[in-house]
Structures are given as structure tokens and as C-alpha cells.
Amino acid sequence: MAGVANQNILLGVTGGIAAYKSVELARLLLKAGARVRVVMTEAATRFVSPLTFQAVTGSPVRCSLFDEEHEAAMGHIELARWADQMVIAPASADFMARMALGLANDLLTTLCLASASSIAIAPAMNQRMWQHPAVQHNLSLLEERGVRVLGPESGEQACGDTGPGRMLEPADMLAALDSASGAGLFAGKKVLITAGPTHEAIDPVRFIGNRSSGKMGYALARAFRRGGADVLLVSGPVSLPAPPGVNRVNVQTALQMHKAVFENIHSVDIFVGCAAVADYRPENPQQQKIKKLSDRMDISLVRNPDILAEVATLEEGPYTLGFAAETQNLVENARAKLLAKQVDMLAANSVADGMGFESDENTLLVIWPEGEKHLPVQDKQQLAESLLGVLADQYRRDE
Ligand code: C5P
Predict the structure, then answer these.
(1) What is the pTM of this model?
(2) What range(s) does the Flavoprotein domain occupy (predicted)?
(3) Residues annotated as binding site for CTP?
(4) Which of 51, 253, 270, 394 is 20 to 30 A distant from 263 in Cα terms?
């Protein structure tokens, strides 16, 4: 579903201080051409008055399931049918828990069960609450059911803490709702993603590796899954859980990654090479731990196969997206790499200024033969969603 113009959007507001930002979201949605109706939970009305939303949207705001006057005008089942899309912003920890349980103990939870429309939630809560296993478990349940999760962002919070749990800014939320990466965009597509580092054994206890955390590849896997794709993640050693609904194959070395990719590549529509594959591996890994007997030691290295380049040059191969981490001359090096590897699209980032490998945020220059787009600094999950929007446009053109 692309774009919010002409859509009926049911904006659900739950009890959190970020509710004040949802007034601006309602205004932006209307400005973008959507029709907006607001439903508030009892707790939400403690933070913002229903009258505020009514004044902004020009429509009555509903807060209760048992409101005879409103039910007579547009009953809750009618309201559920009216919505093309539901957006719950902010979504509190309590609301996510009730939704995950399938409760229908107020109007908004009832609408979530009664509506066949897609549902997006924008969680907002204290960073400790957000990281609590109960909240994360509910989040996984909701994602498995196809609920789209927007944010949250990391940063300063109303309670004085700093960390993840800030609701996305209304403009970013609108961009996400409006973007081509909406639900179903990659439905029926098979996507293979490599992620994380590879570890190349020197001996049974030592290896050559790199500082890739796998965060970007995992964020892409999550984003493609949200877009309806069937996702296989071939992952090097990282400490991240597999995103809900994503199949994962774990590998250690470049050769194992190469094998896992080529065992699965033939039915794949889109290949994303996000792994930081070691270019070289020790020629003769030792079977026993190497003892420190001399002052010097040399390890002879041999080249690993270039997985991305091999996939990109397959006859009838998938659409390919590669990554390039550069420390200098980003644009020139990225263009050269696009040609050298014959990939369809390349996402390049500078790792010279502390951004990239281990950080939660990143920026990307996305290039393809006929164009380029700069994606500004943002959280890696948001960045993955933005990158998918760019990829979807080009992929559609190539298809
Ligand atoms: O050549 P360079 O390592 O900079 O290229 C990076 C891109 O190539 C990434 O997309 C990475 O996943 C992929 N790559 C690969 N196999 C290699 C080396 C890099 O798939 N052996």
C-alpha cells in the first residue's frame, strides 16, 4: 500500500506524554490528503484533550465503546470497516500488552481485533520499560502477526532518561507511512541477505575477524519481512536474535557463507550482500593452538571468494544490492565498486568518522547505474526502511 493520500486513517492514541505529538501527526496526515478519525484510550485523554484532536481533524473523537450517541452515528464495527489503515501513536507498553493478548477491553483494542486493515504502532515509553523482556516479547508477537512497528528512536526522554523509547517524530512517521516500503510491497518475493562478520580460523582458539555487528543486515531482514518477503538470513557470528518470521542459517567463515548462499540462491529474487566478509583467510589453519616460540610470526593468507560479485554475475541471477564501507573518496570508490562487481545497487557509507560498524545510527549514499540518493543519519532500522523504499522503486523498474 503506497502513500496515505485518499486513505481512511484511524489514528489511535494511547496514554503517554508523546500523545501531544500525535496532534501534529493528525495534522500532517490530513495535509497529505488522508481522512483521519481519532480514537483515544481513557489514559490518553489525561494527556491531551479529545477536543484538541476534534479541532484539528474536524471529526468527533471517540473514547468509549459504550457511547450511545457515537455508536448510533458510526458504530465501532462500521468504524473498523471504514479504516484503510490503523496507526497507534503513541503505543504504550500497556496497550502493546493488551493488543498482544488480543484483549477487547476498550474501544481501541476492540477496533484492532475488528478491523481487517493493516496496523502500524509507534511505541513510546521509558527506555527501561522498552527494553524489558515482557515488552520485547509482546513486540515480537505483534510483529509476527504482521503489525508494522515504527521506531522508537533513541535519545532524550521526557522522564529525563536517555535511551531507546522515544516516539518517532511526526514527520518521520508520515514519511514511513507514506513510503513505498509499506506492508505487502515485497509479498511473494524471496530475499537472501548476508550479515555480520566472518571469522577465519588461525588455530582452534584464534581467528581473523572484523568489527561488523550485523545490525544493518538484521534491520534489513526485519524490514523486508515487514514488507511481506520470505527472508533467509545467512549470518556470521553476531549476538543478535533472528528477527521474527526470518529464517536464519548461522555460519562462521567466508567459505561456509559462500556455500550457504549458493545452496539457496537459485530461487531468490533479491540478494543483499551486507556481510563484512573477510577478504583473506589463513592458508593453513593449525589444528592445535599455536605456541609462542619465536619473536616473529607470519601468517600466510589466501583470497576468499567474493560472494556478492559471484551472485551479481550469475546468468538470470537475482537483483543485487551490495554495501561498501569506505574510509576515503566515498563517491568515486562506490561508483567504481558498482561497476567492478556488476551489482544493481550499492549502498556506501563512510567508516572514517566512527559511524558505521558498531553504531546504532548510520548514513548511506545509495547509487545505481542511472542515479543516486543520499539517506541522512538515522537509526539503522529507519535507514533500512528508507533503503527499501529506494530499492523498491528501482527493482520495480528493472522487473
Ligand atoms: O570489496 P568490498 O569488500 O568493499 O565489497 C563489499 C561488498 O561485497 C559487501 O556487499 C560485501 O557483503 C560483499 N563481499 C562479499 N564477499 C567478499 C567480500 C565482499 O560478498 N568476499
Answers:
(1) 0.68
(2) 8-173
(3) 273-275, 279, 289, 305-308, 323, 337, 341
(4) 394
